């Protein structure tokens, strides 16, 4: 008869339950049906449910739906979770998958999944799938969106959820116990976390140098000589800000490594953690470097358009050709080009797909040796530029270039420190420290030789 027939059908395909018939519930139900699962929706109004529900799914009240499956996806906002409390009996021993996200970080004292577990202590709560969107679920997993993260206390419950995820075409990563849920709930809210500090530095430096140069070059000229050269803001000023910020950020990218080496040298051991600020700084070196590359790129573009500018074309002067100036001008341009070429190489090798193909030694050769060489070339390029500009020009006074000198201090310091580090005797000591051969460390305190950072 009819009933036997439907029982047989449900016996063949494993049944999964979805609470909530909203956007996410419907998309998830559709994917589950397509993957060959039987889907039972649990809804507050099972009889007046919308026509949007995927074809082939059953809709029941929450209690009845819960009894029909072992695995229940909770596609309902956290605010409404208390409807589950009266269902405690039906939910006993079931696996509840918490899919929920919050609108902002630390919106609630405990993670949504932990809250759910406290409401329904008899069930096994698994956090997961919350990094997907309803939209991507409907379209099926794409390359960029294949990974789902799960966590929970019970291994069996997680296994059951992972099996479903794999059948839906995702790869699931078990992140551990339910205490990780908060971290998973923060994932969708993250906004370029490693980029935040480098971006702030870039914006801060750009703004500072922009206003400094605005006052120094344009307002100063206007006040003292009542000369209006405000048009220079667009290209000349931008083309000063870009290389300055780029050079400083490149130095900031190499400074922490140098500082870390000196710290190890001073402490005489590698078995102690770096201070927090240094750790954080080391972790955003890649972003600092890439932003520096971006500014260098802008500087190149701005420089390339100089010959087609009206202003340059207009003051097409005819003076005596000076060989020395020509040499100096060409060398500084050439150094800039070489520096930029290496800069681009550094940027390319920092891409995960490229750096994965390099051995550790190749990677550190490029990022450290060639990196410092890049810094050296760019610094030399800047020095030569200044020499051309200030020393050989009669219109400039000795006090003209403080802004320019300012941006040279940092790279020069980094390079000098690096030079000190690669002198043979210091280098040998550092190698000894890094290989863990410390003077009598084992005799002093055996614990000293236990690495703190595994
Ligand atoms: N939409 C998305 O792309 C994603 C959503 N999520 C999470 O999934 C959850 C659901 O999101 P979404 O589907 O977009 O939300 P919707 O508002 O579209 O749907 C929520 C559903 O929950 C049910 N519901 C609402 N109020 C109550 C209540 N008081 N008691 C019981 N059930 C109720 C309703 O189903 P019914 O009327 O059938 O009872 C409703 O359709 C949220 O926690 C969200 O953070 C996570 C990742 C992505
Ligand atoms: Cu330059």
Automatic annotation (TrEMBL):
<dbReference type="GO" id="GO:0006826">
    <property type="term" value="P:iron ion transport"/>
</dbReference>
<dbReference type="Pfam" id="PF03807">
    <property type="entry name" value="F420_oxidored"/>
</dbReference>
<feature type="transmembrane region" description="Helical">
    <location>
        <begin position="332"/>
        <end position="358"/>
    </location>
</feature>
<dbReference type="GO" id="GO:0015677">
    <property type="term" value="P:copper ion import"/>
</dbReference>
<dbReference type="Pfam" id="PF01794">
    <property type="entry name" value="Ferric_reduct"/>
</dbReference>
<keyword id="KW-0560">Oxidoreductase</keyword>
<feature type="transmembrane region" description="Helical">
    <location>
        <begin position="287"/>
        <end position="312"/>
    </location>
</feature>
<keyword id="KW-0812">Transmembrane</keyword>
<comment type="similarity">
    <text>Belongs to the STEAP family.</text>
</comment>
<keyword id="KW-0186">Copper</keyword>
<keyword id="KW-1133">Transmembrane helix</keyword>
<dbReference type="InterPro" id="IPR036291">
    <property type="entry name" value="NAD(P)-bd_dom_sf"/>
</dbReference>
<dbReference type="InterPro" id="IPR028939">
    <property type="entry name" value="P5C_Rdtase_cat_N"/>
</dbReference>
<dbReference type="InterPro" id="IPR013130">
    <property type="entry name" value="Fe3_Rdtase_TM_dom"/>
</dbReference>
<keyword id="KW-0274">FAD</keyword>
<keyword id="KW-0967">Endosome</keyword>
<keyword id="KW-0406">Ion transport</keyword>
<keyword id="KW-0813">Transport</keyword>
<feature type="transmembrane region" description="Helical">
    <location>
        <begin position="201"/>
        <end position="223"/>
    </location>
</feature>
<dbReference type="GO" id="GO:0008823">
    <property type="term" value="F:cupric reductase (NADH) activity"/>
</dbReference>
<keyword id="KW-0472">Membrane</keyword>
<feature type="transmembrane region" description="Helical">
    <location>
        <begin position="403"/>
        <end position="426"/>
    </location>
</feature>
<feature type="domain" description="Pyrroline-5-carboxylate reductase catalytic N-terminal">
    <location>
        <begin position="15"/>
        <end position="101"/>
    </location>
</feature>
<keyword id="KW-0285">Flavoprotein</keyword>
<dbReference type="GO" id="GO:0052851">
    <property type="term" value="F:ferric-chelate reductase (NADPH) activity"/>
</dbReference>
<feature type="domain" description="Ferric oxidoreductase">
    <location>
        <begin position="244"/>
        <end position="377"/>
    </location>
</feature>
<feature type="transmembrane region" description="Helical">
    <location>
        <begin position="243"/>
        <end position="266"/>
    </location>
</feature>
<keyword id="KW-0479">Metal-binding</keyword>
<dbReference type="GO" id="GO:0046872">
    <property type="term" value="F:metal ion binding"/>
</dbReference>
<keyword id="KW-0408">Iron</keyword>
<dbReference type="InterPro" id="IPR051267">
    <property type="entry name" value="STEAP_metalloreductase"/>
</dbReference>
<keyword id="KW-0410">Iron transport</keyword>
<dbReference type="GO" id="GO:0010008">
    <property type="term" value="C:endosome membrane"/>
</dbReference>
<dbReference type="GO" id="GO:0005886">
    <property type="term" value="C:plasma membrane"/>
</dbReference>
<protein>
    <recommendedName>
        <fullName>STEAP family member 4</fullName>
    </recommendedName>
</protein>
């Amino acid at each position: 008869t009819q009933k036997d027939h439907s029982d047989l059908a449900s016996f063949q395909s494993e049944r999964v339950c979805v609470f909530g018939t909203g956007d996410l519930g419907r998309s998830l139900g559709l994917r589950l049906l397509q993957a060959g699962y039987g889907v039972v929706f649990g809804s507050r109004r099972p009889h007046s449910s919308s026509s949007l529900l995927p074809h082939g799914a059953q809709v029941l009240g929450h209690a009845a739906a819960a009894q029909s499956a072992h695995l229940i996806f909770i596609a309902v906002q956290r605010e409404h979770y208390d409807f589950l409390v009266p269902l405690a009996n039906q939910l006993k021993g079931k696996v509840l998958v918490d899919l929920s996200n919050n609108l902002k970080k630390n919106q609630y004292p405990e993670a949504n999944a932990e809250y759910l577990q406290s409401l329904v202590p008899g069930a096994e709560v698994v956090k997961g799938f919350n990094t997907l969107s309803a939209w991507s679920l409907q379209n099926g997993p794409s390359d960029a969106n294949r990974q789902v993260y799960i966590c929970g206390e019970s291994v069996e419950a997680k296994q059951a959820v992972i099996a479903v995820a794999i059948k839906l075409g995702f790869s699931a990563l078990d992140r551990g116990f339910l205490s990780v849920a908060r971290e998973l709930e923060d994932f969708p809210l993250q906004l370029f976390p490693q980029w935040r500090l480098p971006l702030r530095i870039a914006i801060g430096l750009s703004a500072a140098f922009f206003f400094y140069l605005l006052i120094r070059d344009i307002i100063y000229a206007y006040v003292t000589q009542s000369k209006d050269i405000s048009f220079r803001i667009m290209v000349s000023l931008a083309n000063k800000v870009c290389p300055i910020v780029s050079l400083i950020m490149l130095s900031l990218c190499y400074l922490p490594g140098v500082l870390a080496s000196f710290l190890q040298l001073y402490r005489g051991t590698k078995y102690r953690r770096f201070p927090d600020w240094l750790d954080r700084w080391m972790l955003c070196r890649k972003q600092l470097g890439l932003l520096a590359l971006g500014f260098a790129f802008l500087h190149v573009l701005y420089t390339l358009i100089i010959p087609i500018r009206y202003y340059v074309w207009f003051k097409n002067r005819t003076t005596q050709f000076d060989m020395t100036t020509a040499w100096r001008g060409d060398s500084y341009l050439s150094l800039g080009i070489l520096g930029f070429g290496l800069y681009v190489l550094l940027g390319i090798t920092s891409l995960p797909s490229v750096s994965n193909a390099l051995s550790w030694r190749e990677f550190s050769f490029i990022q450290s040796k060639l990196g410092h060489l890049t810094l050296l070339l760019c610094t030399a390029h800047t020095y030569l530029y200044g020499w051309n500009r200030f020393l050989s020009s009669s219109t400039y006074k000795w006090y003209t270039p403080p802004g320019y000198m300012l941006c040279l201090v940092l790279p020069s310091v980094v390079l000098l420190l690096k030079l000190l580090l690669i002198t043979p005797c210091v280098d040998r000591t550092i190698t000894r420290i890094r290989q863990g051969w410390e003077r009598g460390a084992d005799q002093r305190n055996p614990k000293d030789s236990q690495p703190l950072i595994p």
